[in-house]
Design a protein that fits this description.
Layout lengths: L1 H17 L2 H31 L2
């Protein structure tokens, strides 16, 4: 039960942080970074596959 309370506390802390202007800004920045990294990995994978033929 202790782990559940700890995870619930983390959830509420993140939720409260996301309700602040800085939290929203950070979330947008992190989401954008994930999209860029995913795009670069996909492009590199396609380029490697294309060049290996």
């Amino acid at each position: 039960m202790n782990k559940i309370k700890q995870l619930t506390g983390y959830y509420y802390a993140v939720r409260n942080y996301m309700q602040t202007p800085k939290g929203r800004h950070d979330f947008v920045d992190y989401a954008r970074a994930v999209l860029v990294i995913t795009g670069v990995i996909a492009a590199a994978g396609i380029a490697i596959k294309w060049l290996s033929n």
